[in-house]
Amino acid sequence: MHSLHSSKRSGATDEPAWVRWLLTVAALVFLAFFLLLPLAAVFTEALRKGWDLYWEALKEPEALSAIKLTLIITAIAVPLNLVFGVAASWAIAKFDFKGKSLLITLIDLPFSVSPVVAGLIYVLVFGAQGWLGPWLAEHDIKIIFAVPGMVLATVFVTFPFVARELIPLMEAQGTDEEQAALVLGASGWQTFWKVTLPNIKWGLLYGVILSNARAMGEFGAVSVVSGHIRGLTNTVPLHVEILYNEYNFVAAFACASILALLALVTLAVKTWVEWRSERQMAAEQAVVHDH
Amino acid sequence: MRFRQASVLPGFGLAFGYTVFYLGLVVLLPLSALIIKTSSLTFDRFWEVVTAERVMAAYQLTFGASFVAALINLFAGLLVAWVLTRYRFPGKRLVDALVDLPFALPTAVAGIALTTLYAPNGLIGEWLAPLGVQVAFKPLGVVVALTFIGLPFVVRTVQPVLQELEAELEEAAACLGASRWQTFGKVILPTVLPALMTGFTLAFARAIGEYGSVIFIAGNIPLESEIVPLLIIGKLEQYDYAGATAIASVMLLISFGLIFVINLIQWWHGRRHGMRK
Amino acid sequence: MKTRFSVLTALLLAAVSGSALAGNELLNVSYDVMRDFYKDLNPAFIKDYKARTGQELTIQQSHGGSGKQARAVIDGLEADVITMNMPPDIDALYDKAKLIPENWASRLPNNSLPFTSLQVLIVRKGNPKQIKDWSDLVKPGIQVVMPNPKVTGNGRYSYLAAWGYALKQPGGNEQKAREFVGAMLKNVPVLDSGGRAATTTFMQRNIGDVLLTFENEAEMIAREFGRGQFEVVYPSLSVRAEPPVAVVDKVVDKKGTRKQAEEYLKFLWSPAGQEIAAQNYLRPQDPAVLKKYASQFPAVKLFTVDEVFGGWRKAQKTHFDDGGSFDQIYSKK
Lengths: 291, 277, 333
Known about the structure:
By secondary structure, chain A is mostly helical. In chain A, 77% of the residues lie in helices and 0% in strands. Chain C has 16 helices and twelve strands.
């Protein structure tokens, strides 16, 4: 029922070849200037002194510990926001209630908060001079300048992604299918797992990919609550900044390129999901034909 | 009218309750610290801080550049999303993956890479310099950086909607004699408009607060190319936390207002066009 | 529900493990450009300490902008020692959180300054614009690159150096100094947010005719960008850069690391420590070491912030706080 590929479209719903060509070229030129060239600049700098130094920079214990920390933080922050995003979009897109625009605006808000400020607010709450600071110090619990604070800052900056991906999608889909499922006797959870989730999987995937990328790349907010202890509380972006400030450009850009390569990992994941769903759909169609 | 209109779907209480709880804990509670810290200032002092000449100039630059960048992304993002979902061309999957790059790249690296390209001796800057256009270290550089970091928002919000768009609708329009252009304007655009507006809002919101990528390319000259977050850091350097939170609170309030208005327009538009409700 | 619980557990575990620092571990919270110096110094100290006491120490380093690092310590980053690039950043530890006594500077020799530096002018190879002194920086057509005085110590030193120079010229007064610095800032096309960012703007982007920075930074530029690329010009008069160090009392008393932390800082004044400073182009306090490295430290007439500006607190307030001279220069009103 969902057409994913242009190949399925008939001539009546396709543009003339020259229009397609023109639009494609325009899009690619724009992307070349704003995405490809900056990326090329990163790799050029990273490989300026050859592959050996590139690998050397990545094999450094400090670089490895930064990569590890970045992955840990992302692995905690993204699932937290995933659960929130699904809950929020379910409430917002499937129901009508007063103050909906207000709620959406509050969800958007973390984006407009400067990373500098996003870090600052956690310092104001958990810092030694903050609200909970004395209590935390008494019980020897560390939030900021340790992993929990960095997770909180990352959760904050990636807060809206999943919800914001899902809301327009769920709104466009309406509630007809869910209502039908319920009428046919499915329970609420069944309806969600069997009807809603398959319908929103693309939006969900994009949301996770975006949160993931942003969580790994976040610099400003995490920088405020990290403490910058080398090999201990430095994430990859913080490590990159330190290397850059040491004029160690090759190592700085090598570590940055690792983050860029993560975009390619998400590509692999997305392709895999696409492939699986295509196979599944083909299988379902085969079942229909058998009957 | 009741708070919530009746619906046969279950789970509103749980979903809504969790949403509000999590939102309160992660976002609203810490943000309230900002407001409370600001309230330690007298009103006169607060007003003096947030309306200072340089602060006003910085608001103008930050909001202006963010708006222009989001506008560029609105058009460019729709174009990219369209091309990626509708057409086939070599390297498409790679291009699709690259769209997320501005998020994955640490903002500081993005800023440095863009400055390298757009500085007067850079690959692109070199071509622009003879034309009398200087990008890096000028307000134009701010727009370039903000366009870069905001691009994925529009593309990634529009893309799933375009993918889910049913071909039958377009076919029906075509059968009824609509031209391709008419189909786009009357069928496709209204459907993707909410997503498009969402993308615009997010790109705009994100641009307002951006620091890392802008700081390298902006030039940071007071009254000319100084962004608001830099002023906040300037306050912190004087250990003036209250002054910093005052400027941050005003930014928060303005962004909140702007995003709220955009969301209201969107909601109202959705109503009028009766999104299959 | 189960996953959420395990996430919570992970968070708590991380919180607890973060606080488990052993007694033989020191954290040195320092500013951006000191990494090379402490990279050389720390192993030397660890070896020396082990030889004398048999105890094996680990020293963690944290680097970032000077003021930002000081704020982190105030807000709870548990630094045993703090090594900043100007005294106000350590004063703040007393002012804002009483982590150290007010008289912290008098606890170590030389007002707690193990070494000093000064502001120099870095020009392009062959000095094509013939820049010799601060007075050349206000000429029309000269482009000056320096970091932002509002947010960096490096920028503040350059600003004060130019101000002090103008003040000390024949017939110099506050008004003339303000005009002089204003004219210099008019020639600044980029105010970078960090000292090293300013260097990159000057060296890599090829912007500006002169870069204002620390003397020891010139050596770092030479190591990375090549010695033939630029020249160092020593002005007729400059400001003494004073990077102080201090033990953070509240932290070492809590962690039980006072002895180690004090030994660590004292090592900076030892002949070995002074030697490492000189090798990193920081001017040592020890006259014998200074003499040994005299060829790399030309004699320059220097003034201190205390002499000309009546102390750091006053200098910060009159020049860099909100409404100070820097803000006034950039005001249209």
